[in-house]
Design goal:
single chain; Rossmann fold; 15% strand; 434 Repressor (Amino-terminal Domain); 45% helix; alpha/beta; six-stranded parallel sheet; 3 domains; four-stranded parallel sheet
Amino acid sequence: MRQITIYDIAKEANVSVATVSRVLNGTAPVRKSTRAKVEALIQSYNFQPNGMARSLLKNETGIIGLIVPDLTNPFYPEVFAGAEHAAHQLGYTFLLSNSIGDYAKESDYLHLMREKRVDGILFMGGRVNLKQCEPHLAQELEQVASVIPTVLVNGAIRNSNLVSVLTDEGAGTALAVQHLIELGHRDIAFLGGESHMSTAAIKLRAYRKVLKDAGLKLLPEWQLMDSFSIDSGKRQMKHLLSLTERPTAVVCVNDYNAIGAIKAAVEAGLSVPEDISVVGFDDIPLAHHFIPELTTVSQQANDLGRTAVGVLKQMMEGQKVKKQHMLEPHLIVRQSTRTLVQHDV
């Protein structure tokens, strides 16, 4: 059986295609009798408007492109959940692409999104988290953003006009370090991610500043950079525990690092937080269910996604928006930190 089109509905109702479109989309008033006739035909044929036809009529597809670097990292699905909820309320769906941090894949997906004529793009991870983004990668993203509204989520490109929605990671790290200081800790280490990534650099800089302002020592051997994984956290904690002078507390670049650090400490016969306090970053779902429950900094991932969609919607409507939208982080105190007492040192 041949599929019914908007043109068939218009012909049988003896109205224009534009009138049928107005009935479907509610974009303009239609005479009551005409609307009733068109709606009756739509119902009788169980008509569903073709997406391509709708895009031609409205000059939009109802699709937002989303590029993420790693769907196995719980932080990104949390951001996506917030974005998806906000987008659904606005009538949008997502074209989701997992780049695995591969810049070539990011380029492929950007090209695909231009081909698919998405209405807007949310871009996370990869090149937008580099301390120094390669010029050709930055230029490519700027070129796409010049024709498709684009929002960078928790990232930025230096010396560009690209719009960003992000959490203040420096302020979040400061909260974590200050929390440990208030608990009486004076020997605090930092377990970081890859040194060429801006998120690691921002957090390390904030860690150093808080300790310096507090007049506490900054030992180079207590400032470790590796990757963002659980295994990385284990390696870094094992190194710390091999030192003659050990810290009493550790701030980690993310929750995965923190979980690895705790595992290494426990495997070495230590107790967390009795022997060493550990703070994570991100507040992934596992942080609340891990033993001990993890003290961490919430990036408000869900709000991050919702805010990004809201800003993108404004851009798609042609509104002017700020270049940077900053969300405030929150410290979530759980079981992996405690007050330092005399017998701990």
